Amino acid sequence: MIILGIDPGTTTTGFGILQKISRDNYKVLNYGVIHTMPKIDQKIKLFEIDKDIKSLIKKYKPNLMSIEKLFYNKNPKTIISVSQARGVCLLNAGIYNLRVFEYTPLQVKNTLVGYGRADKAQVQYMVKNILNLSYIPKPDDAADALAIAICAGLEIQ
Fold this sequence. Notes:
It catalyses: Endonucleolytic cleavage at a junction such as a reciprocal single-stranded crossover between two homologous DNA duplexes (Holliday junction). By secondary structure, this protein is an alpha/beta fold.
């Protein structure tokens, strides 16, 4: 089972690709971020995200996509742009017939740390331990995407 985890954003979209070996055993296939230039037109950013997500799906052939669910943000402009990036990712899940799992940040923290108000460092520490890495994955968006992928891995039997 191959899981594509995504932490959507328009300037930085994190991704993490895991192969689930058994219930508590994962192999990290790849992780990183999709960067877009901050000052370019939104449609160009979305095109870049689309192109890179398609490339990851074609290369790793995931069985499912695990993506961060939107949560309330005081800045409507931010929530709209993140929604658009999320839409591009979900469109690709539809095109490539991937099963989709969605998790709020609170659900991710609860699943990995056991506490919904855990801080980023606690979540990253658990990602490192669960994946048996000798280091905390960087950048933060990639670590978040791996955390989101782990959530789906734990949910799937």
